[in-house]
Amino acid sequence: MVPKKLERITNLQQQGLHKLALLNMERCPITATCLDSLSNLVALLFLNLSRSNITDDGCDKFSKLKSLKVLNLGFNDMSDAVLSHLKGEIS
Q1: Into how many domains does the chain fold?
Q2: Name one Pfam family in it (predicted).
């Protein structure tokens, strides 16, 4: 059974949010499944995931966010290896 909060995040695309440009999820617990769903929001320009307990798991999904201009990953538990998923994505 999927917890209600996680279910809402994983259904973002189905909720008609495909044009969403700004998303602030600071201090919201984010899992690899959540990152997979967030990566479908291809119109995102600004994404704040600071203080969200993110680890390296699922961070490869950031490379799908081609329109992203600002990504805040501050104060999470990620290694420098995550930067490899962002290499070449920064304009």
Answers
A1: 1
A2: LRR_6
